[in-house]
Amino acid sequence: MARTRGKDSLKPVKKGQKRRRDVWVFTEGKVTEPEYIRVIRDRAGAPDVEIHIANASVPGSQRKPIKLVEAAVQLNWEKTREAKRDGRPKQYWPSVWCLFDRDEHEHIEAALKQAKEGGVRVAFSHPCFELWRLLHHKAVTNSFNGACGAVAQKLPFAGSVDDLKSVLPDQIPPGSFAKAKQRAEQINQAYGPHVSKLLRDPYTDVHEFVEQGMGITSY
């Protein structure tokens, strides 16, 4: 099982100082998702949350969804044990998230199941994270047949997947989160509650990570 450790930033809180909640994030992409997190955090702030990219230096071979989840479950167990040992109030216990896509990965269903059983939250996109970026610009009504390249072609600032690794602030219109969330919820609900997210194309719930993980409700 892959293991990734990071330094816990929680320290004794001084009088008048507000304690932060630690959030550890394992991302499938080494560049795109971490840069997106940085951009919106710089713009919106997250004063009550300390975000850690848990696998920042991990090689690509360890970034498949099942590997991310294995490492995340282990880290969640370690950090929860530390929080209990230190007697922290439950609202300040750390949380662990994974951000990954459907793409053509194997063992996706097993990864989602293992994450749920291990107390790890997952922000999932089908076919890929670029769908979430696209929803900041326009609504989506058609299936992409699992092809991330088809999503990339619709982005106003790039024409290929290779061009999309970096996330620049001007690629995310100010005030666009609410509209992107609304569009995501519309496409997600179109399938009905009994259809697995693995079968929904398009699908993304990255907005849940933004709100519930990062503590950001607008940017």
Keywords:
single chain, about 220 residues, alpha/beta, five-stranded mixed sheet, 7 helices, 5 strands, about 35% helix, about 10% strand, disordered N terminus
Task: Describe the 3D structure.
- It is a single chain.
- This protein is of the alpha/beta class and 219 residues long.
- The chain has one domain.
- Helices cover 35% and strands 12% of the residues.
- The chain has a five-stranded mixed beta sheet.
- α1 links the parallel β1 and β2.
- The longest helix has 22 residues.
Instruction: Give the low-pLDDT segments.
Output: 1-17
* Strand arrangement across the biggest beta sheet: 2-1-3-4-5
Silhouette: globular
According to DSSP, the number of beta strands is 5
Any idea what the radius of gyration is?
Answer: 17 Å
Q: Could you give the order of the helices and strands?
A: EHEHEHEHHHEH
How many helices? 7
Instruction: For the record, give the distance between the C-alpha atoms at the N and C termini, rounded to a whole number.
Output: 37 Å
Q: What's the pLDDT, averaged over the residues? A: 89
Domain module tally: 1
Instruction: Tell me the β content.
Output: 5-15%
Largest sheet: 5 strands, mixed
| Relative helix content | 25-40%
Structural class: alpha/beta
Give the gist of this structure:
The chain is an alpha/beta fold. Helix content is 35%, strand content 12%. The chain has one domain.
